[in-house]
Amino acid sequence: MKQTLLCLAASALFFSACDTNFVPQDEIVINLQEKGAEVAPSMYGIFFEEINHAGDGGLYAELVKNRSFEELEMPEGYHAEGNTLYPKKVHNHITGEVKPERYRWTTEPVPGWSLKVSEAADAEMKLTKENPYFTTAPNNLKVTVKNGKTPVRLVNEGYWGMNLVKGNAYLLRAIIRASSTYKGKITALLLSDKDEVLASTPIEVTGSDSWNDIHRTITPESTSNKGKLALEFDGAGTVYLDYVSLFPEKTFANRPNGLRKDVAETLAGLRPAFVRWPGGCVVEGISLENRFEWKKTLGDPASRPGEYSTWGYRCSYGFGYYEMLQFCEDINADAMFVCNVGMGCQFRMGDASSESEIAYYLDDCMDAIEYAIGDASTEWGAKRAEHGHPAPFPLKYVEIGNENWGDEYDKRFDIFYVAIKEKYPELILISNHGMGGIGKSVRTDMIDPHWYVNPEFFFQNTKLFDDQSRGKYDVYVGEYACNSNVGGGNLRAALSEAAFISGMERNGDLVKMASYAPLLENRNDRAWAVNLIWLDTDQVVGRSSYYVQQMAAENRPTYNVKSNITMSAPLPVDYNEGRIGFGSWNTQVEFKDVRITRQDGTSVQPDLARCTDKRGKWQIENGVLNQTSSEAPTKYVMDDFSGNQFTMECKARKVGGNEGFFIYLGLSEDGQKGFVYNIGGWNNQSTAVEQVSGGRNAGVMGKTVNQRIEKDKWYDIRLVVAPGKSELYMDNELILSHVPESTPLQFISSGYDEATREVIIKVVNAEGKSYPARIKLEGMEVESTGKVISLASGSDMDENSFEEPEKIYPEKSEYNGFGKSFDYNFPPFSYTILRIRTK
Q1: N or C: more exposed end of the chain, with fewer CB within 10 A?
Q2: So what EC number does this one have (predicted)?
Q3: 776 in a domain, yes or no?
């Protein structure tokens, strides 16, 4: 039925193209002889991080939660109070302050496990470290059955249920020791959510207080997508369990300790050129005490200790370094390893190791590289061979740190860069710097800017890379997503990302790689509001953004060809007659001598004590408005003035922290919409105007200039605002001007695929009506028949869901109306790709 509709849709478009009443909105002229930038084969990759239970309970196929009983282990120096975990008190290496961070914790006595005891029986369980099987994962569970009148069950429900499929085999591994006092039998059971027995197998152990490493295969006779595993004890005595694991026999590529097949296939469907691992913020940890440690992810899964994740739960380390490298090999992708430079997460505690300890972190990084690509005669290359892979893995990239900044990071980056390049010159090394330059670092191969923004940012910044300088380094857009004001991830978000992708492709000589983030979300634990792929125990759902990523990767041209237009023309608009205010990002600031002059020359001396919206720690002392917290962002919106034609003057000073000042303008009464001059932002590297959307800074609008703000220096600020333009002066020097514009809603990119000899035209229409265009192809003859791939829906607010996983899905059809000049009516709210074969 769907294919029939496709053909009808294609026919309808063909006939509309022949309609003499067809009036094109734009004439798109593409010259196939004017070759533009190449689009690197490395352009589209994936970024994996343990967030939203992306690995445990997601990509990693293990069905048992807390299989090694290590879940309640916490990082050194941390402590829990009830359901809250408090980090060790360490000083931020830039500000010197101790941040009052807190994270979720569980009050379950044994997370993931419960004892089911009848009234006639008596049993208890508790965690011990008695005689561990692996000292690296020392916890084991002591189960004591005080009488054996009726069987006792130790039950694990996995990660919100286990998907147990009739006829599929599951591999059970249990490391158990029974005391000489235990006289009963032990039986492993697979249960439905209603406790129906789906399968059973006996577990035979010696009662000599020695460990038994038991392996069994068990096959359910019925299906339950919310199943459970139980160990049943029918006698009195004591039994210790060190490790209990249940794996589907069918994993991706049939790998032991492998990946969930449907999830891995969904990732492979993106055709990623690279995989970035292990993060993300988990690389640094909340503080250095709980950073991700790759060496602890190697070897027998039962020996891996895991670590409390930055995102509020324990990571088992099951999907480890070896498994990541193996996955890259299985999907023909290059690997990217992200190392720690001895710095904790700067958005959290922000600690840093001593200078004398930098060598430790460098050695750890060098060992990781050697493990992946070193000769089998080297120390870590030999360990790789011992683990079953004598040949090198496809490691090609190393990112040095994650979202680190400042002089200390720049110094450490240079140390790592020189050492790695000397031994491994073939590796591409990536820094954490954004578009504002590389600070005090000497050199880098690539920078890694990140964008989490609203749709308007991506729509309005498709030319962001057009005027960037070339030759010093390439760009890897390591994390980007439209995640503000788009629900769980609607079609409008996806269309804005498709528009931004067109700008990245067009600038393929600069932008060589990109990866959406975050990648995966278990629907039962959403720590991040908008993610690319959703999953449950038995279902995987790609959002519309997933299909945009897939379409872009599957239809990557070899190189760009010139087009006369890349987007519909934006129109000038006026600023809202809104409020003005001050703020900062993780920085302590002061403002004084605030004066506003209206268009008619009259002045307003605002009462700083009157404000409509406040975030941060603000107070007024001797006429000076100061903000003393390290919150991000802070805001202080004045109540005494509202307008869009005025001059605001003040003095501003930075007294501590990482960045500069915010000057808000045109803020709506609820503070949800407007603009902000971010002065000395992005780690005190640059100044730009950002849009305010949903009450938060939602991305740069227009030009960015390099600028640093000195500490303890008073700056004279003058903001001149007219309805259609604003100008920022500092110390009487024009720093930046901004012209507000409407959001363009149509975007065009064009390229050529040398392998298939096809012209590829990609068009985004984010408007609620059709976009009629006349397309002229110059410089080459083309065939009339080709392909159309289109992602569209009736509303840009539409989302895929578990109930309607393909509500928004790319439709493919043949089309026979192409030519050197042809008309095409692009559907409302659509991302359309035309593939036209050349003669």
Answers
A1: N
A2: 3.2.1.55
A3: yes
- The CATH number that applies at residue 749 is 2.60.40.1180
Tens of pLDDT, residue by residue over 101-155, are 999 999 999 999 999 998 777 899 999 999 999 999 999 999 999 987 889 999 9
Domain that holds residue 238: 110-248
Q: Tell which residue, 280, 100, 92, has the closest CA to residue 658.
A: 92
Whole-number Cα distances in Å, 139 to 114, 314, 634: 16, 14, 44
Residue 687 shares a structural domain with residue 763: no
Q: Quick check: 140 and 240 in contact, CB under 8 A? A: yes
The answer for residues whose C-beta is within 8 angstroms of residue 683's C-beta and 6 or more apart is 405, 406, 434, 436, 439, 658, 659
Q: Does 17 reside within a domain?
A: no
* Domain stop point among 723, 738, 753: 738
**Nearest alpha carbon to residue 516 among 556, 485, 544:** 544
DSSP classification of residue 296:
G
Rounded Cα–Cα distance for residues 81 and 90 (Å)? 19
pTM above 0.70, yes or no: yes
- Which of 738, 772, 798 corresponds to the end of one domain? 738
Give yes or no: residues 758 and 626 share one domain: no
**Looking at the predicted structure, is the pLDDT value of residue 15 above 60?**
no
| End-to-end CA gap in the chain | 33
Q: What is the pLDDT of residues 118-127, one digit of tens each?
A: 877 789 999 9
The answer, yes or no, to whether residue 597 has pLDDT greater than 60, is yes
Residue 407: partners with Cβ closer than 8 Å, 6 or more residues away? 439, 440
Which amino acid is present at 713? K
Per-residue pLDDT, averaged over 815-837, amounts to 97
